Each structure stands twice: as structure tokens, then as C-alpha cells.
Amino acid sequence: MATPLIILVPLIFGSSFTSSTSDSLSEGSSLSVETMDDVLTSPSGTFTAGFYSIGQNAYCFAIWFSKPFCTDCPVVWMANRDQPVNGRGSKLSLIQSGNLVLSDAGYLIVWSSNTVSASSTSLKLDDNGNLILGNSDGHVLWQSFDAPTDTLLPLQLLTKITKLVSSRSQTNFSSGFFKLYFDTDNVLRLLYEDPEVSSVYWPEPYLLSWEAGRSTYNNSRIAVLDALGNFSSTDDFTFLSADYGLKLQRRLKIDFDGNLRLYSRAEGEENWLVSWEAMSDPCMIHGSCGPNSLCSYVPASGRKCSCIPGYKMKDNTDRSLGCEPEFNLSCNQSEAGFMKLTHVEFYGYDYGFYQNYTLDMCKNLCLQICDCKGFQFKFITAHGPSGIYCYPKTQLLNGHRSVNFNGDIYLKLPKVSLDYHSNPVPDYKLECSTQVVEQLERMYPNSNENPSLRFVIWAACAIGGIELFSILFVWCFLIRAHDNSAAAHNYMLAASGFRKFTYSELKKATNGFKEEIGGGAEGIVYKGILSDRRVAAIKRLIDANQGEAEFLAEVSTIGKLNHMNLIDIWGYCAEGKHWLLVYEYMENGSLAKNLSSKTLDWKKRFNIAVGTAKGLAYLHEECLEWVLHCDIKPQNILLDSNFQPKVSDFGMSRLLKRGHLKNLGFSRMRGTRGYMAPEWVHSHPISSKVDVYSFGIVLLEMITGRNPAMGVEETDYASEKGQRTLVTWVREQMKGNEEGSRWMREIIDPILDGKYDPDEMLIMIRVALQCVQEDKDARPTMGQVIQMLLHD
Ligand SMILES: *[C@@H]1O[C@H](CO)[C@@H](O)[C@H](O)[C@H]1NC(C)=O
Ligand SMILES: *[C@@H]1O[C@H](CO)[C@@H](O)[C@H](O)[C@H]1NC(C)=O
Ligand SMILES: *[C@@H]1O[C@H](CO)[C@@H](O)[C@H](O)[C@H]1NC(C)=O
Ligand SMILES: *[C@@H]1O[C@H](CO)[C@@H](O)[C@H](O)[C@H]1NC(C)=O
Ligand SMILES: *[C@@H]1O[C@H](CO)[C@@H](O)[C@H](O)[C@H]1NC(C)=O
Ligand SMILES: *[C@@H]1O[C@H](CO)[C@@H](O)[C@H](O)[C@H]1NC(C)=O
């Protein structure tokens, strides 16, 4: 410990004379890894470029967001992600020939811009986050925007020659296996590619490009995100961020888990919100669990991977490597047998597909193929001719288990081990953060120690003692901050995504609280137009004193959430007795209003069901703050101009940390009669399944058009309690009538006039009835609900 300290002294001591934060690097000068403030800053201070600590003694030259806060400074670009440099002697130098060179520990060149220039050059960081090497006649020789790592910033073009590559894990910044790129057919895709296999998972691989809404005609292959949150690509793929509009900062990043997410951060805030993501079901991301394993997704507890029977985890420290066989299988057909796993799908890597094969034929086929690892056996009705299909598999990749997948996999295992493996091995959970610290061997050049250097060291020691202490203190502090930021890097969706408004501002916006657009027990909602011309819904709490607790609960909960199917909150006001909340305005009002006014056809209803489920799943989702809504009802599902649903009113919900379910201290019942799960009445423990129950009731209401709180008019049932009535009534109608569809006509909302998709209707009824089961454990999770609605 003593030696490195002494070595540091002259360096730090020296640094206080020579370097300072600056906005450009001129020819012949360099930035040193040893000097904390040897960095380039963009004119407004938004971005900083410098050496970024990625572990013990390991640094990368990077660009990161540095304003307004840097407790979690997201890296947007790295020069040497795959080859970190040592913490001493390394530097980035702009040499006389015009080449920008990054050297490790003084001698080894790990990266360079490969540029030459006759005229003088300089390196600048601009306010878009682009590091530009230009020469004196304004020519750009090199820029970081042309060589992205895993992040695309607004106005940075993704082109035919660039791609985004994920990092290896949350803490390992080196190149990972997921890529966003333009394929040779001009379509923008997400790809999993490890040294052995590669497969595309977005857009959905079983769809043709045009079926996925992509065009293959424009070969200019350019995609760009604008500052407002509009992403557009030349293959016709576009999306608008859920918080479209002027935000301070945005970044589109391919995360280490293979999902592509848009993050945004509003002015003055510390935390980043996810305002769009490509994949809603993480198990559909190929490669996410590695080979020979199964992914299953439980929103409340996260994505889980498990080795299939007969296989074991390849590397306990890197679960993405998946599993490997515990057996050796010879080619002798009489030594192999099969084990059936139901509702399991492995995508891709088929030896071929065989229609109308019986199970025995398929088994024989797999036995004959030496490297057949098993086969998929499923009955297909949609997509092409129906029938039984047999798919022998040469590799078992992209496996996932879903109760709704109508097919089975038969694993080929040695006969001797078939009994032994009758129970599948337990799940292993993918950690949200895997703490692995990069550590570089120290390999500094030997400096020939000489007496004068010794003298400088000791002199510095004497003079700079106090300075050293304070600098080391700050330094350790900064390193700590870096460590924290690594752990919290993704999924930080927290803290006050809104601003404070003054009462007079809101009074003006609503024209003196004139236009009332809704109301509830807690307060009245008015339409208003903010000074930046955004139309807002402004909720004014009726009784400030009584509403205060709810108000604060609502503010702290919804301020932390951001999803396209959750209502966005823009701000609040708390002045004396005035307590107000400012939401985005939803053109089409609530689902309740629309159900009674007959505007919703079947397509819209189904879409609303899916969107609402997505919003709720997000509330319950892995790695996010875990939140119960507790008051799902049509009044709280709002519709935008395209009838896209957004869940609103989290006033009664309570912020929960995952895993603390048992200690729930709900002080009083929450919810609305007709929609409340039986747990409330029986004082059973409350879990996310209360939201599932209420959601099921809402589905039944959308299907039947009947208000669950009113009961069903048929006399037999009217005496029972409301919610039970609607559920029981639907169940009774279904029972005994399973053949045919007459019962469906009985229960379906007459407003639909018989115009609906019978398959979707059946799925929705089935899902609804599963959601409203008395036993909370028998109800599906919201994630499973989405799967059932979309993939059945
Ligand atoms: C392709 O896209 C680019 C950029 O949007 C556009 O300028 C160009 O006209 C398009 N080409 C064709 C053939 O549509
Ligand atoms: C988003 O950008 C595309 C391409 O520039 C444009 O055609 C589209 O109108 C934009 N959408 C919005 C809502 O601004
Ligand atoms: C499989 O074969 C390899 C070499 O042929 C041997 O080292 C290994 O122990 C065998 N594994 C099992 C489970 O028999
Ligand atoms: C295949 O295995 C069976 C049973 O273990 C054995 O009787 C037979 O001789 C083997 N066949 C070959 C070709 O090795
Ligand atoms: C498979 O069976 C179905 C139904 O019996 C039939 O329509 C189809 O033509 C068969 N396909 C083949 C390839 O035999
Ligand atoms: C980071 O990932 C790379 C590539 O897989 C690997 O070589 C390196 O050892 C990893 N670093 C750590 C600290 O695990």
C-alpha cells in the first residue's frame, strides 16, 4: 500500500499545476489517466470525455453524461471497451501527425483514430455528445458519432456501416452478444450472436418483413432519433417515445440483457426513465438464457433460467453461457430414449420439419440423426397448413416455457439416465446485477529510479501531505460513486419525473378551473393548457387535509414510473391548501365512459386489454420498483386519441420493495366494490394478484358490457354480491354449453352486434376467468396474461 501512495504524490502534486478541465485538446498534448480533471467537457457541461474507471486499476476512455447530476453517469461511448488500460501511465494523446492515440501504461497502443492531417488538429466534445477531431480548416477527420458502442444519442445516425453492440453484463463493459444493425435486406434488426450461433429476434423472426411492418426497398439504411423522441428508420420502422416532447436528455441503448430501450431524463432530474423498449417479454430475446436452458418469465420475481434435465450449468459465474450435457451419448440407437417437457419451445436450429409425422416416426427420425438433441412436437393451426409438425433439433437454443405454448419438446437422453432425471433441476434466477470487478495486472514501465526523483518524492510528500489527503478523499469518493453507478446503471426508473407548478400557473392553465373532465372520491379533474401549450389534466384534491396522505402517495409512486401504458405525470403543486396533480391529457377519457357510449369495437377492446395488461405487468415487473395498483377499474383506464390505454390513478397504491410482501401493512381496504379481490374481504395477504383479479373483472366488463358492481339482471343472481354475480353468471353460461358458441352470444355485449373475432373472444374469456379465480395462486401473473392474449 505504501509504494503506490508514494508514487502518486508527485503525480497529483504535479497535476495541480498543469491541468484543468478544458473544452479542447490541441495537437501535441494529451489527457492522462492519473489526473482526475484531465477531461474534456462539452460547452454546456452536459457531456464529459475522459478516463472512466471500470474496475480496479482498469480504465476506458469514454464519454458520459455529466450534467445535471453524475451519481449515475451513463457512459455513451467508449474507445477501448474490450481492452481497458492501466491506472498509471496510460494516456490519450493527439500527436503531431493528426492521429489520436490511446496508449496503455505508457507504451502499448490499444486504440487510435487512424487519422493523418497536414494542418493542425484539435479534439472537441460538442453538446450533442459527439467527440470531434477536426483540423484548422473545419474538416472533420474523425468523430465518435461514427463509431457507436451501445448507445445512440439524439441526432446520431445509425447507418449501414455502424451498429450498436451491448455490453457483456451490467458491470462488464466489453462487447456482448446483442446487436442492433441494418441487415443486408435493409431491415433494422436485433440479433443475438455469440461465437457459435446467431439469431435474429426482432422484429419477430417468424414474420416476413412486410408482415412486421418493415420495408426492404430503401437501401440508404439510416435510422435516427430526434431530440423530441421520434425514432425513424428507412425500413419504415418508427416509434414515438412515451414521453414525446421536449426532454432534456435522451439515449437509446441496447442493454446487456438484449433489450433495446429508450431512456430519458427531464430537466433537473437525476434519474433516467425508460420511455420505450423493443421487447416486452424478455424470454423472447434470443440467447438470454444460453443454450440448453429454459427461460420463464414471472413479472413479480423476474426472468428465470433453468437447465433442462440431464444438463448442468456451464459456468456458475456467467449464467448467460447456459448449460452443458452431463452425459455422453453414443450414436447407438438402442441406448437413447426421450423425455417429454410440456409447453416448452426451443426456437430455431431445426434439422428440418416433417408434417403429419406420428410421435413414433418423429422419435425414430431423431434416433437416426446422430446429433439430434431432441425434437419439437406440436400441433399447428395458424400460419400455413394445419397438422402435426415434427422438428428434430440440432441445438437446443432460445428455450422458453409457457403454459400457453401448445407443443412439447422431447429431449434425447441416455436411456440409463431417464429415470434419474425425472425431476427438472431447480431454476436459477438471472441477477439484475452481477458484481464482477474488472482487475488489470499492473504492468507499468520500469522507470529507472534515480536520486533526484527520490528527492522529489520525499519533498512532495512533505509539502503535499494535506493536499494529498484531501485529493485522495475526493478520489475515493468518486470511485465509490462509480461503483454505485455501475450497480444501479440500468433500470433506474425512479424519483420525481415531474416539476413543481405554482398555483397561479395552474389556475391560469385551467382558466380558473372551468372545464371539469372527471372526478372521483379524491378530487375533481380539470382540463388545462400549460404555458408550453401542452394540454393537461389537472386534478385538484377536494379536501386538502384528508387528501394529503393520498396525494403524497400518488406523487411519489407515479413520479417514478414511466411506460407507454401508464399515465404520465408532469408535475404537481402544493401550496397551502391547494394540492394539485398535473397529468398528460387523454383525448378519449376513461374506458368506463367509452364502454357506456358504445364507441369501442372489438379490435379496440382487445387492444385495450393488451395495453392495460402491459402497463400493469410493468408495474409488477422485474428489476423495477415493485408496485401494486390496487384500484383497477374502467374509470382508471384512460384512452388517448388512438384509443391506446393508459392506466391512471395510483393514488391508492402503495410502493413496495419486492420480497416484502408478507409484511404488508395496508392500514385499510383499498379498491372499489365490484372489482376487489376476495383477499381484501378475507384479510388474506395482499399480492400483485389483487390487481390481476380486478383486471379480470374489467375484462369481463369489456366482454359483457355489464357493470360488475350492479350485478346481472337475471333474477337468480341478483341477490348475490355484485362481483361474484358477474363471474358466476359467465361461468354458469359457459358450463354445460361448452359445445357450440350459443353461450358466447348470451354473454357478449350486445353493443358489439356480433362483430368480433371468435378466437380472440374465447382467449379473452378464458383469461378473464383465470384472473378472477378465488385462489390467488391459481391466477396468472400479468406477464402470463400478456402472453396468453398475444401468443395463443
Ligand atoms: C430512402 O430514405 C432516405 C432517407 O429518409 C430518403 O432521403 C430517400 O429518398 C429514400 N429513398 C427511397 C428510394 O425511398
Ligand atoms: C417522426 O419523424 C418522421 C421522419 O422524420 C416523420 O415522418 C414523422 O412525421 C415524425 N413524427 C412526428 C410525430 O413528428
Ligand atoms: C464423456 O467423455 C469424455 C471423454 O470421452 C470423458 O472425459 C467424460 O468423463 C465423459 N463424461 C461422462 C459423464 O461420462
Ligand atoms: C448398441 O447397444 C446395445 C445395448 O447397449 C448393444 O447390445 C449393441 O451391441 C450396440 N450396438 C452397437 C452397434 O454398438
Ligand atoms: C397432413 O394432414 C392434413 C390433414 O389430414 C392434410 O390436409 C395434409 O395435406 C397433410 N400433409 C402432408 C404433407 O401430408
Ligand atoms: C468481461 O468480458 C470479457 C469478454 O467475455 C472477458 O474476457 C472478461 O474477462 C470479462 N471481465 C470480467 C471482469 O469478468
From TrEMBL:
SMART domains: B_lectin, S_TKc
The Bulb-type lectin domain, residue ranges: 16-146
GO biological process: recognition of pollen
Documented EC number(s): 2.7.11.1
Keywords of the record: ATP-binding, Disulfide bond, EGF-like domain, Glycoprotein, Kinase, Membrane, Nucleotide-binding, Receptor, Serine/threonine-protein kinase, Signal, Transferase, Transmembrane, Transmembrane helix
InterPro entries given in the database record: Bulb-type_lectin_dom (IPR001480), Bulb-type_lectin_dom_sf (IPR036426), Kinase-like_dom_sf (IPR011009), Pan_app (IPR003609), Prot_kinase_dom (IPR000719), S_locus_glycoprot_dom (IPR000858), Ser/Thr_kinase_AS (IPR008271), SRK-like_kinase (IPR024171)
Coiled-coil intervals: none
One GO MF term: protein serine/threonine kinase activity
GO CC annotations, alphabetized: membrane
Gene3D superfamilies: Bulb-type lectin domain, Phosphorylase Kinase, domain 1, Transferase(Phosphotransferase) domain 1
Keyword DNA-binding in annotation: no
Organism domain of life: Eukaryota
Pfam families assigned to the protein according to its UniProt record, in alphabetical order: B_lectin, Pkinase, S_locus_glycop
Transmembrane segments: 455-478
Entry membrane topology: Single-pass type I membrane protein
Apple domain mapped to chain residues: 331-414
Record-annotated Protein kinase domain positions: 511-792
Catalytic reactions of this protein: L-threonyl-[protein] + ATP = O-phospho-L-threonyl-[protein] + ADP + H(+); L-seryl-[protein] + ATP = O-phospho-L-seryl-[protein] + ADP + H(+)
Signal peptide region: 1-22
CDD domains reported for this sequence: B_lectin (cd00028), PAN_AP_plant (cd01098), STKc_IRAK (cd14066)
Compartmental location: Membrane
Family: Belongs to the protein kinase superfamily. Ser/Thr protein kinase family.
Name this protein carries in UniProt: Receptor-like serine/threonine-protein kinase
Source species of the chain: Rubroshorea leprosula
